[in-house]
Design a protein that fits this description.
The N terminus is likely disordered. By secondary structure, the chain is of the alpha+beta class.
């Protein structure tokens, strides 16, 4: 009887120790959940080209149909409307080179730029000086040129930065040569006496 009691006690003790050991042993750590890949946002703003801004260089824009426009300077014209004295009107102005000739493109923003002539003519038309930036800022990837009525004329996309192109010097306007002054018409010659007839002195009053 005693031997059976001892055996049962030993078996109970072993079972207890085994259960305690199973609880103490740490189980394998759960695998860390992998971070989900960031979802792409199709509405995100497109990245600026790696070689922008061009700084001291020029920026070439093209439309893919053989037309190109090289921007060499960028500035603004700020004017005050007399009807709204507290509101400052700002026009963006770009100095561009097209086919070797200097021109401008101006407007309230880069999506509605109009063609213009030389910068001095734009200053006179807008009624204020152009405040040029020391170097080219970061320009948009696309620039639209419209007519005076707002009709789209060209959609130009940024291509590359390059050295400012050579500009053709405007033709010199030669002053017209003045025609030589015509000599004054001589006074009517005094009436001559017919040959063989001697006219006495003082016959014709001076």
């Amino acid at each position: 009887m005693r031997s059976r009691a001892r055996g049962a006690a030993a078996l109970l003790l072993a079972t207890t120790l085994h259960a305690a050991a199973g609880q103490a042993a740490p189980g394998p750590a759960p695998a860390a959940a992998a971070d989900p890949a960031p979802a792409s946002n199709p509405d995100a703003t497109p990245a600026v080209a790696p070689d922008q801004p061009c700084g001291g260089r020029a920026a070439r824009f093209e439309n893919g149909k053989g037309f190109s426009m090289v921007i060499t300077r960028a500035g603004q014209v700020q004017t005050t409307n007399p009807l709204r004295p507290l509101t400052t009107e700002v026009n963006q102005v770009l100095q561009v080179v097209i086919a070797g000739k200097v021109a401008t493109a101006y407007g309230p923003d880069f999506s509605t730029l109009r063609r213009g002539s030389v910068p001095s003519a734009i200053e006179a038309m807008l009624g204020g000086p152009i405040k040029w930036q020391p170097s080219l800022p970061t320009l948009p990837e696309s620039i639209a040129i419209v007519s005076e009525e707002g009709t789209p004329l060209a959609q130009l996309a940024f291509r590359t930065c390059e050295a400012p192109p050579a500009v053709k010097a405007p033709p010199k306007v030669q002053a017209r040569k003045k025609a030589p002054a015509r000599p004054a018409a001589p006074k009517a010659a005094a009436e001559k006496a017919p040959p063989g007839f001697s006219m006495p002195q003082g016959a014709i009053a001076e």
